Amino acid sequence: MFAKKLKGIMTKAVSGFSKLTKEEKINWIVETHFSDAVEAKNIIKQYWNNDDALQKLHDEFIENTITNFYLPLGVAPNFSINGKNYTIPFAVEESSVVAAASKAAKFWGNRGGFKAAIINTEKIGQVHFIYNGDKQKLEQFFTEIKPKFFTETESITKNMQKRGGGILNIELRDKTSDLENYYQLHATFETKDSMGANFINSCLEQFAKTLKEEAQDFETFTVEEKNITVVMSILSNYVPNCLVRAEVSCPVEELAEKHIENPQEFAEKFVQAVRIAEIEPYRAVTHNKGIMNGIDAVVIATGNDFRAVEAGVHAYASRKGKYSSLSHAKIENGIFTFWMEIPLALGTVGGLTSLHPLVKVALEMLEKPSAQELMQIVAVAGLAQNFAALRSLTTTGIQQGHMKMHLMNILNQFNATEEERRQVVKHFEKNTVTHSAVVDYLAKLRN
C-alpha cells in the first residue's frame, strides 16, 4: 500500500492520500520519508492529545492532520493600558520576546503606562471585473443599481446590522489606466467583534451576482457591454482605515534607570535610532520585524490570522512609496514620546476564537475584550517589543540579553545535565554568551 524509498529515489506520487485514514497517512509518511519509521511515528504520536475528543477537534481545523505542532504559550503581566492592567498571552518560539515585553511593561508601568486609541475600524472588499465598453454607461448603470447591492444582501447583513455593523459604502473604481478594461466595486464594511472575512466575502459574491444579472437587463448596454466578466470577489487584508494608535510618553528625566544614567542622551539616541528606521529600508525591515514579534505572538494566541496582519502591516509601512518604520519618536518641551499607528483587522468572535480551547483561555485572560480592545492590546504589545529592542540596541547591545535567553536552547541542544546547567549559567553570568563559548565550556566540563 505504501510507497518505499529505494536508494534515495522515491516511487511515483501517492494517489488518494486525502482519503486515507489518519493512521494510514502516518504510515505512508514514515515508510516513505524516514530511515527510522518507528522513531518517526513515535514522535508524531507523542504530540497527540490524550483526550480523543480534543484531538479530533484539532484534527479538523485543517486537512491531512497527522499531529499537533506546539508553540510555547507565555504571558507578560503588568501591562497598564489606558489605566487598566492586563496579563498578555504570547504564543511564540523566539527567545527573549516575552522577557522583553515584560521588561517594557514594567518600565512604562512606573511612568504612566501605555495609552491606546482606535482611529477607525473600516474594512475593505472588492469585486474585480472586466468591462469592455463606454465608461459613462457603466457609471450610469452603477448609480442605478447601487441600492440593489444593499437590498440583495439583506439576508447576509441583517445579523451584522443588529450588532451595529454592515456594509458602509460601495464605489465604482476605474482601474483601466493600470489594466485594460479593469474596474472594481470597492466596498467598505464594519464587522464589529468579528474579523469579518466570511461575512465580507459572502457580501462580495452577492454583489458580483447582482452586477452580472442587472447588466443583462440594462437596455443602454450593447450586447458586448452586457457581458461583464467577474474575475474574482475577495476581501482585502490591506486595511489602512482600520487603524489603532499606541503610545508612551514621560518627561525625559524620568527615563533614568540602571542602564540609562544620562536620560537626555538616551532619549536623543533613541529618537535617532527610530529616524534611521524611518529613512533606511534595510534597517526598517528588521525594526518592524521586532514590532511584529510582539504583534504576531498575541495575534496567534488569540486565534487571529497573523499572516493577514503581517501582509497588511507591511503594506502600510510602504504606503508612501518607500518601506519605512512603523513607529516614531520625538522629544518636545522636555517630553519623550514614542508611538505607532498600525492597521489591525482582528476578531474576538467566530473562527478559532470559539473553537480552540487555548484561544478561549487567552481571551478570558484578557477579560474577554471586544475587537477594538484587542486591537489596542496587540498594538501595545508591538510597541512594547519595539521599545525593549531599541533600549537594548542603544544601551547594552541586543546580544547580551538575547543570548542569555538563548542559553537554555543551546544547553538543550547538547542534552546538558542539571549540574552542567547550573555551572554553565553561573559561568555566563560574568561572561559573554555565544554558541561557540557555551559549546567550549560544556566540553571543558565534560572532560
What can you see in these coordinates?
The longest helix is centred in the last third of the chain and has 23 residues, at 371-393. With 447 residues, the protein is an alpha+beta fold. The strands form 4 sheets. A 4-stranded antiparallel β-sheet has the order 5-10-12-11. The chain has a 4-stranded antiparallel β-sheet with strand order 7-8-6-9. It has a two-stranded antiparallel sheet with strand order 1-2. Helix 5 crosses helix 7. The protein is built from 16 helices and 12 strands.
Task: Give a brief rundown of this model.
The protein contains 16 helices and 12 strands. The protein has 447 residues and is an alpha+beta fold.
Biggest β-sheet description: 4 strands, antiparallel
Overall shape: it is globular
Q: Over the alpha carbons, how many angstroms does the gyration radius reach?
A: 27 Å
The helix content is 40-55%
Distance between the termini: 50 Å
Sheet with most strands: strand arrangement: 5-10-12-11
* Beta-strand content: 15-25%
Query: What ranges have pLDDT less than 50 throughout 5 or more consecutive residues?
Result: 1-8
Class from secondary-structure proportions: alpha+beta
Q: Helical stretch count?
A: 16
Q: What is the mean predicted local confidence, pLDDT?
A: 93
Annotation, overall tally of beta strands: 12
Which key features would you list for this structure?
447 residues, alpha+beta, 12 strands
